[in-house]
Amino acid sequence: MLWPGASATVRRASAVAPAIDDAWLTLIDNTLARLPTTHAARVLRVVIDDRPTEHGIAPFDRKDPADARDGRTIWLHHRLFTEPNHWAHGNFGSYWSYHVQRDGAVVDGSAVDHDLFSPVLLHEIGHLVAYTLTRVDAGEATPPCAAMCGDRGGCAHLSPAERERGCASPYCMPFKVAMGTENWAEQYRLFFQGSEARRALEASGGACLSVLKEMTAGAPPPWTRAPDGGRYRSSRWDSCGGRACKAF
User: I need a surface site. Which of 9, 71, 92, 181 has the fewest CB within 10 A?
Assistant: First the structure.
């Protein structure tokens, strides 16, 4: 993580470092505290500098000099800390992007001891857990329970409903690759976000629910010892004309 006055490894001054304060770090701490220790320990470092062309996590072997993800580091954009929750567009509709658990709240400028956590960060940690704890080959990086049409042989000739089958959110596949990496991370996020989000996952019959319960070994849900996830907003699906027609 770069601090005020530091320079990035590419020998350019960091535009983000001067804005980072302890409230940002509290958000990271609060989010990690919601997870089993074995999951939180997989996060080796967090970098906030907006440098990669893609944020978040990715397998090590990207072969793209513009993409600094390495499968061990979580890369975050400053907008996570400076903007409130908002609607975002996925492959199959719109979903509510939870920067934090309370709508309208912003981390930047909050008190150091705030109680905000980040479902977006939970999603990114879910990717890292998939690469390390589920023993998925890094070339595929999709636990079988989250498989989508791209993992099952192709999406091109399927109807919208068939392409969506098994999706935990309209952002259930990357835009560039038709596989279920995002479907796993979204189910992971729903599982740890809060009571309403987990109920939505359970009502949907989320395919990875049993895997997530097994991974947490009967541990009490995070909202029994930390803030709950607040209101849960159902996604709007293109296949339903932009309506919230599903449990999640």
Answer: 9
